[in-house]
Amino acid sequence: MRGKIIAGNWKMNKDVFGGAMLVRELVDSLATEPGVQAVLCPPFPVLAAAAQLLENTGIFLGAQNMHFENDGAYTGEVSGSMLVAVGCTHVILGHSERRQYFGETETTVNRRVRKALEVGLTPIICIGETLDERDRGITESIVERQLLGAFSEVSPDDAARCIVAYEPVWAIGTGRNATPGQAQDVHAFLRSVLSRVYGHETAAGIILQYGGSMKPDNAFELLSQPDVDGGLIGGASLTASSFIAIVDAARRSLIR
Ligand code: PEP
């Protein structure tokens, strides 16, 4: 059975002092249990302090991006092996904000995915349609193209190690979440595409997270959908109480 994975995308929020404070609060009160994993993805300058605080807690550490080369003349970039060295196990890739503001393309997302897998990181691959695309009825073709692009030349064994986050762009940071039915429909579609490429067994094991205004008051219903295996949480990951409440909703959704 797939467990649930709740990841917090802090985006460009919290410096090393505020970040360490939030990690401490989470470590003190986040009871992780088998079946539910929590992953914190703070900004780069917080990673080293967070890694120390998270040691032996069962809470995982992720970054929000990485470059696809190992090292070299790429001013301002950070490599996957640097993330591993600082204690990361996960990395968010292809977030819509990176596609929108920083020129990420399907090709560069795919190169990052393959490099992340090569260095032993779990990629959290973000895909999702804009409001205009949903209104035009092309959600499935958009997310299928993004999914296939991200998984290009990824082997079945490596695919099994990936997490996909379906994040409708119109739901990110807007307070307007997809309904549980809308999320389930897209997740089931994504799993059918993965099944076509990798076979039923592999596809059935891949974690599909929903992201986009997931909050304590809507998390349980979203996470109770059969193909919603977790959440990628932006705004609500910035306060300990709301992130803990979402992890708790994930736990309750498993024992329903
Ligand atoms: C995100 O940016 O990944 C996200 C889901 O943000 P929010 O929860 O704030 O909508």
Number of helices: 12
Provide the β-strand percentage band.
Answer: 15-25%
What is the end-to-end distance?
14 Å
Helical percentage:
40-55%
Principal-axis shape equals globular
Number of DSSP E strands: 8
Strand order of the largest sheet: 1-2-3-4-5-6-7-8
Helix/strand/pairing category = alpha/beta
Overall pLDDT? 96
What Rg, in angstroms, do the CA atoms define?
Answer: 17 Å
Q: Show unreliable segments.
A: none
Characterize the biggest β-sheet.
Answer: 8 strands, parallel, barrel
Which compounds are bound in this model? phosphoenolpyruvate
Oligomer type? single chain
List keywords for this structure.
alpha/beta, 8 strands, binds phosphoenolpyruvate
